[in-house]
Amino acid sequence: MGYAENQYHPHQRVEIPLPQPFVKSFGNSLKETFFPDDPLRQFKGQPWPRRVLLGFQYFFPILEWGPRYNLQFLRADLVSGITIASLAIPQGISYAKLANLPPILGLYSSFVPPLIYAMMGSSRDLAVGTVAVASLLIASMLGKEVNPVEQPKLYLQLAFTTTFFAGVFQASLGLLRLGFVVDFLSHATIVGFMAGAATVVCLQQLKWILGLQKFTHETDVVSVLRSVFSQTHQWRWESVVLGCSFLFFLLITRFFSKRRPRLFWISAMAPLTSVVLGSLLVYFTHAERHGIQVIGALKKGLNPPSLTELEFGSSHLTLAIKTGIITGVIALAEGIAVGRSFAMFKNYHIDGNKEMIAIGMMNVAGSCTSCYLTTGPFSRSAVNFNAGCKTAVSNIVMSVAVMITLMFLTPLFHYTPLVVLSSIIVAAMLGLIDYEAAIHLWSVDKFDFVVCIAAYSGVVFGSVEIGLVLAVAISLLRVVLFIVRPRTFTLGNIPETPVYRNTEHYPTAVSVPGILILEIAAPIYFANSGYLRERISRWIDEEDDKLQSSQGPSLQYVILNMAAVGAIDTSGLSMLDEIKKNLDRRGLKLVLANPGMEVMKKVKKSKVIEKIGQEWIFLTVGEAVGACNYMLHKFNPPPTKNEDHLQDNWSGNNNNNNV
Amino acid sequence: MGYAENQYHPHQRVEIPLPQPFVKSFGNSLKETFFPDDPLRQFKGQPWPRRVLLGFQYFFPILEWGPRYNLQFLRADLVSGITIASLAIPQGISYAKLANLPPILGLYSSFVPPLIYAMMGSSRDLAVGTVAVASLLIASMLGKEVNPVEQPKLYLQLAFTTTFFAGVFQASLGLLRLGFVVDFLSHATIVGFMAGAATVVCLQQLKWILGLQKFTHETDVVSVLRSVFSQTHQWRWESVVLGCSFLFFLLITRFFSKRRPRLFWISAMAPLTSVVLGSLLVYFTHAERHGIQVIGALKKGLNPPSLTELEFGSSHLTLAIKTGIITGVIALAEGIAVGRSFAMFKNYHIDGNKEMIAIGMMNVAGSCTSCYLTTGPFSRSAVNFNAGCKTAVSNIVMSVAVMITLMFLTPLFHYTPLVVLSSIIVAAMLGLIDYEAAIHLWSVDKFDFVVCIAAYSGVVFGSVEIGLVLAVAISLLRVVLFIVRPRTFTLGNIPETPVYRNTEHYPTAVSVPGILILEIAAPIYFANSGYLRERISRWIDEEDDKLQSSQGPSLQYVILNMAAVGAIDTSGLSMLDEIKKNLDRRGLKLVLANPGMEVMKKVKKSKVIEKIGQEWIFLTVGEAVGACNYMLHKFNPPPTKNEDHLQDNWSGNNNNNNV
Predict the structure, then answer these.
(1) Cα–Cα distances in angstroms (integers) from residue A412 to residues A63, A397, B128, B218, in the given order
(2) What domain of life does the UniProt record list for this protein's source (chains A, B) (predicted)?
(3) Does residue B23 sit within a domain?
């Protein structure tokens, strides 16, 4: 048809990228996948001794900031360290009870891990310690196979082994640069999951607040409420009164501190004050004889080594590994989110993979020194931040304070009532239920809200694992759905510009007679090529119907805007081929606009480009429309409507260049 | 800073879409997800009686084309129907043996299901029958729990139940418009899977070709070869010679037919010819007494009803359901792919969901009339197509031919040697190993090649299910990886145009001094927001380094081109917020270009728009660059280089409008 001679000549053709050697492009993908932040950049062009020092500094950031440490920092870190120690001691004991472990482990866990983190961690604000959710998870997962009351030694060994595997898993994620695993816990998942876990933990505290002796081992709300209401005659009013008073006290101090951030120390000191007051009360009233349960004797002395307690040959090894991985990921997610939030506040950078190594190593070290799983809890780190900490030295101060407690002060906790510890836990947990975040999710993104509610309901009505799996599955479903059901829309010309945009988004955009312009807003993969084929042919049918009823010129060109098609696979290529054949059959011409590098590579390699014709592939939608109009005018009588602005593809209205 | 007064005024602002009522937008998404082809379109505006007729025609397409049927069609369909019957009889018997079912079932299965399909199916070329892969799968999956030799009745019942569930599952997929499940078996998966299954089926035939009595129940290549070579002394040369001769005969006829498509009937008739020759040979030489196994007595008469054989109360019910679903999906994938290929050849449209209902119903009906799983096998349909079939009447002709065989001719198959059936299977299977497609995959798309090889190795070294799961998992991994590790690249100005494109793709594109333009080529979700944050800050670091070493003007603006960002969730929104804070800290300005409707909606709802500033969101990259340049020139001394063409955003070089 002599097309070549009458051809429309655009300024610039769509380039076909030169084929790259496979090894090179594969290496590039690997680099982009695993080293987005290019951690070796600072090593480049350095002499070897400097590289070694930088390497040490990478793993031990204390070598970097240590030499710059001064007295002013120390004063700030002393204050904040002592403040968090006063929070760490009662919280540590409480959470150890929650994990069904001996209370002293809570103190041990606030001694060794903070020291390791102070050397290896890169956050200046993170305060290390045990967390309620991980403690609960350990109790519920290990409790399924081993009863902590009947086999305390085995249970303890399993807890250490779990901690060991959690640490190894965390450190390996960091070393293998697989930190993105944590990203799969989206913000919405964490909001719902934390609120669910907090609810479950609060429900568990009913045991101590009501002074019950027997309690269910399940964590779901139905089992717990059944267990509570089946023994109403066992409720102890003394315990309830004590618990509620301390809870009220803790909540009121938090309320004050929230309204006046300078009074942060009131709420930070409140738990220790409660413990002291509670212990004195029990000591003087002998309330332990009236149904108020107390901690009892705590062993004096520092952490005993526990390397030999790690059980690798036990039949419960799989359980320990599974528990370690799940609790490890959750602890990591919390620790990293907390570190990153405060780093953003204070304008410094945190390397997620490096943090994972630090948190992992501190857990491995902890598992050998009678500690269980630790991370950077939000509440404690917030107190640390508010108390004005400057560096990780505040963790060292806390550690020393806990050490002194372990060596000399443990007998003081003998009469501490358990119900006070429960009040401390409940008060801390209530702060984790972030209903405002849930409302925000609902207003911004309904799907994220569903994820959040799924995580919450899964945890509360099922178990912690069910909630987690449910939320991650729904989140992933969304990602897959984006690909499986990609959006397609028609484009129209924005008046007085050569720009083409979604006609739904820009109602003023006008469509071009005889030309249907479609945009595909996702990569074309096997999972959506069938859908796209059907959807595109429906767009054409609908356009045909519309044109027939409006008696306008018939449809002649279909332009596919490929700008948002980031990738295409072989199924997608055959789909393009099929669409081309389909359009040929209907006497329509297929035109591609703005295909990216990946698409051009594949279209070339698969020879689909020869079927479409390289002269029908354009750099912009404007050029494609220009070419189509050129052909329409050349071979057809010109349409009556004025569409001059559509003819030149980007000169626009030249009087309008107020740039 | 009095910015508002000195503001740059673009032609058109990015619009913020009006908020839609939740119910409406949710309804819209549902429609786009489940009804891409809008199947109810033809019902619109029709009177009720017409709608009922259209409804009947939807489920029974024969009502639509039946009235137009003429004698010319019948002649063509008669020829093709008889041709496929001659293929269907030996193949049916062979595949039934492969499924460890009585050979007569293969004939039964070519009688009832084709009749159902002829009424309900919309393909004109599909020839219905049993397939090797599904037969093998039934044998290997059911065989794990029930031994077909020891418990033949139970095994038969399970096969019928499996067929019933496969049919129900297939029909429900169609009715619930979940046809996209089949799309998850990508082209690459099917190529690898089919080749693997063909290899496995060929290996299984070694039993009959070598004349072995004992054989392994496993299907993987290691077990089969071990079984074969552990009993070399049992090999029967008579059997081997017979098998190889017939195989050679079959392959040579296919070779001829391939070179001259008009001689298709030679290869179509070859299997029946082999059966006849083989049977005569055995009958006259009494070879059955010399180690050549024969089919033996086949019951005369039509399909007995088998509704009462369906076992819903059995302890193997889960197995039957599981086998039904897996074989159902695979059979569906083959049937639909085959139907679609031929429809494309002959330029008519096939509705995938409607086909699923037809195939499902024919299997439900089959399971009640002593048939096992059927679909539209490629080989048989290709013969049908080559023989010049016009409509599904060719299936009816085949069905009648099989009926006559069942009623009168079954005794003729008494002396048919099994080794001939094996040759027929091997010859058919060798055609399924499409190594050219695998080579094409390697050259076009390495990832698809990996998927293909995974499917093949999984089937050959593991089992059919392992291969399938592996291939689908790797395919999905790619989809997820696209989101988890999105591509980002810098954009540059294409000389003499206002267009900005990937600098890697267009080496002539020039970057703009002081401005970094980045494009994000994927939606921003929780799964990639962490990665994008790191990657974008690395881009900025690298740009900074480059500018410092070149002594050029310092970086002042970062433009994010959001054209390819099809969606964003709450994690993505907080990432944008973090990037904004990050850039503020470094004294850089964040500018957005061309955000789509979804992004604008979310950015508005979450109030991130207020942080970025609506005046810093532009319709095109060109406008964004124009605005940045305007600010740069206003508040900084103008750079020395000539960059006039960058200043006006799309007027370009006005002398160049050869549109």
Answers:
(1) 38, 21, 84, 68
(2) Eukaryota
(3) no
